[in-house]
Structures are given as C-alpha cells and as structure tokens.
C-alpha cells in the first residue's frame, strides 16, 4: 500500500474510533477544577453537582465517591477522561504527532519484548536442498517508566474563572515540551531519570548549505543514510524548516509541505518548534517508527492548597499566598531498538 494512503487510512480509523464515543477532556478539566476549589473529594462532588449540574464531570465524581470514597482510578469514565486530556498533550508533542501518521512500537512497562535488531534474509532454495540460515539478530528489551513532572501554581481567583485555559494551555505545553525535547534532541544522552533521545549517538551528516541545490543534496544524503523500513519512515523537522521547504516545492519535486507537516517523496513529515535550534541551525531526523519501542501510562493531575514549591526567588507556601498548585505527572519511556533505523541531518539553515 502506498505510504501516504496507509497514513490517511490510519488517521481515518483513529478518527472513527474517537467519534464513536464522547470526548471527556473538558469533563476532566472541570473535575480537576472542582478538586482544586475544594478541601475534599466529597466537597468537590457537591461543587460539581452545582456548578456543572448534569455534566459528566459531576457524574463521575459522584460515582467515584460512591464506589471507593476517592476519585482517581475509581471510575472508568474518569480514566477515559484522563486519556482524552492526554490527547491534548499529544496534539502538541512530537511523539503524539508521529503516532498520528506512523505508530511507534507500543509496549507495556516492565514487559519483556523480543526485538529483532538486524534484518533476516531469505534465499531461493533448490528442490531437496537445505534452507540456509536466515541470519538476523534478536534482543530482549524491557522499558522501565520514567517520569515527567510539572507544577502550575495559580491563584484561587483564577481557579474559579480562567482555570480551563491555564490547565489546557500551560500545563499541556509544559509536558509536551519536556517530552518532545527529550525524545528528539541529539544532545540528550539520558540518565537514571530520563531515557536517551532516539537520535543520540546515531549516524549523522552536516547540512551542505541553504540554497535549493544544497537542500536537494541534503535530502538525498539523508535518504541514503537512513537504513530503516521506508514503509514506516517519518521525517521530523523544525517548523521553520518546513516553511522553507514549502517555499521551494517547485524545485524539490514530489513534495507537499506546509507549516503543519505534509510529505516528502511519500514520507510523512512531522513539524514541531520543540526540535532544538541554536546558532548552528536545527536538525532534521528520519526515523523508522516501528523501531522505536514506546510505553506510557498517560497523565495524572492532582491539586494541593498546602504545598510548598521552589521557585526562582525562593520557596512559596501555597496556603499563605492563597494559591492552588496543580501537579501533572506523565510516565513515559522509549528506546531505539536499531541504530541504523534513525538518521540525522545537522546544522540545518535552509533558506537562511
């Protein structure tokens, strides 16, 4: 199947699946708002029944209390609502955008996965002859959860009015930024708390320049360097590089590129401002999505009015300053399972 048709089919199937049920992201935000303005889950339920009477937020807060006396994890609809809130993060993050066109290889934390790290080979076999060994190498991979944390202190006045904007815009952006830069930054070697980026330590080549001829040579060199499966390939680039390519489409040939992505010779393009950029330029990455092992447990959001938080000018006490502190935790991890399935073009300044 043509790669573009495959991507379009995947997006259509995802859209159909999501269309078959309501989206509870707003209900999730409303529930967290009620929790932020209340001193207990029972008070939050009472507030939701008055402020959002008849809404799903009020309904699953109430049902959560009836079943266990708490909220988080107690109600299936609430868990679905958390998933829908995660979709708001996915719209911003590089991982979410890749999954929309070429799904990463999803697994579960702590689950052993048998991964083929080198391609097998087949051969023609004569009648009565032995079938030769196909080769190929395998490894056992297990992903351990890593944690992204974000705090958003807001006043109680804001919690009662512009809460939805703060949670949907600021908190999701903070999570998407940390997740995306960690995933794509070649300088991220990883540590005991954070997985290494999928681009760290892979084969790379420097950009040859910024003219149309240079861009064509860069693209040809990137495709040559890439050794993954073309059917599951994705190109990730900074939004400004996509704009420059879009301006050169008449000389590039088979390209359909906008600020929001597109494709280059049939390979989907994911654009993001989270691709690192400095005085030397940006990077353009071509990766095999099927060779990136990925696991996540969504996003959990909690609130506190008594937390002490560390800021640039010292320690703030939420109670003393009449603040509500939102805490978001994202558990996610990834690992590149074949080094030559990722190729990076560095020092990109196309059109500069």
Low-confidence stretches: 1-5, 15-19, 65-72
Q: Please tally the helical runs, counting DSSP H or I stretches of 4 or more residues.
A: 11
Q: Helical content, roughly?
A: 25-40%
Mean pLDDT comes to 81
The biggest beta sheet reads: 7 strands, mixed
Strands of the widest sheet, in order across it, are 5-15-10-6-9-8-7
Distance between the termini: 37 Å
What is the helix/strand order? HHHHHHEEEEHHEHEHHEEEEEEEEE
Radius of gyration over all CA atoms, rounded: 24 Å
Number of distinct beta strands: 15
Report strand %: 25-35%
Helical/strand content category? alpha+beta
Name its key features.
7-stranded mixed sheet; alpha+beta; 4-stranded mixed sheet; 352 residues
Your description of this structure?
- With 352 residues, the protein is α+β, with helices and mostly antiparallel strands.
- It has eleven helices and 15 strands.
- It has helices at residues 3-19, 25-36, 41-51, 56-68, 76-92, 94-101, 156-159, 163-184, 212-225, 239-247, 249-252; strands at 105-106, 113-118, 137-141, 146-155, 204-206, 233-238, 255-258, 261-264, 267-272, 282-288, 292-304, 308-311, 314-317, 323-336, 342-348.
- The strands form four sheets. A seven-stranded mixed beta sheet has the order 5-15-10-6-9-8-7, sandwiched between helices.
- Strand 8 (261-264) and strand 9 (267-272) form a beta hairpin.
- The longest helix has 22 residues, at 163-184.
- The radius of gyration is 24 Å and the shape is globular.
- The relative contact order is 0.16.
- Mean pLDDT is 81; it is low at 1-5, 15-19 and 65-72.
């Amino acid at each position: 199947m043509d790669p573009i048709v495959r991507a379009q089919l995947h997006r259509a199937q995802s859209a159909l699946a999501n269309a078959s049920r309501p989206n509870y992201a707003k209900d999730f935000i409303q529930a967290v708002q009620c929790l932020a303005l209340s001193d207990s889950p029972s008070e939050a339920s009472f507030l939701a029944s008055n402020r959002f009477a008849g809404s799903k937020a009020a309904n699953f807060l109430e049902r959560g209390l009836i079943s266990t006396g708490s909220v988080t994890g107690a109600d299936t609809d609430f868990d679905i609502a958390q998933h829908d809130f995660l979709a708001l993060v996915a719209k911003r993050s590089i991982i979410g955008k890749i999954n929309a066109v070429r799904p990463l290889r999803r697994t579960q934390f702590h689950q052993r996965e048998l991964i083929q790290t080198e391609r097998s080979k087949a051969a023609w076999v004569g009648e009565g002859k032995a079938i030769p060994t196909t080769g190929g190498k395998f490894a056992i991979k297990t992903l351990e959860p890593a944690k992204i944390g974000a705090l958003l202190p807001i006043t109680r006045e804001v919690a009662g009015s512009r809460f939805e904007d703060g949670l949907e815009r600021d908190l999701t952006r903070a999570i998407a930024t940390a997740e995306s830069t960690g995933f794509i930054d070649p300088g991220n070697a990883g540590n005991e708390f954070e997985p290494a980026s999928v681009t760290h330590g892979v084969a790379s080549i420097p950009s040859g320049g910024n003219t149309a001829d240079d861009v064509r040579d860069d693209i040809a060199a990137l495709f040559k360097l890439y050794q993954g499966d073309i059917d599951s390939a994705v190109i990730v680039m900074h939004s400004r590089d996509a704009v420059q390519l879009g301006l050169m489409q008449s000389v590039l040939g088979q390209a359909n590129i906008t600020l929001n992505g597109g494709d280059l010779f049939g390979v989907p393009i994911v654009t993001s401002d989270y691709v690192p950029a400095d005085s030397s330029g940006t990077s353009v990455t071509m990766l095999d999505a099927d060779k990136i092992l990925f696991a996540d447990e969504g996003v959990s959001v909690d609130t506190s009015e008594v937390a002490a938080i560390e800021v640039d000018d010292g320690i703030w006490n939420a109670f003393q300053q009449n603040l509500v502190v939102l805490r978001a935790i994202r558990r996610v991890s990834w690992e590149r399972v074949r080094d030559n399935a990722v190729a990076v073009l560095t020092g990109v300044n196309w059109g500069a």
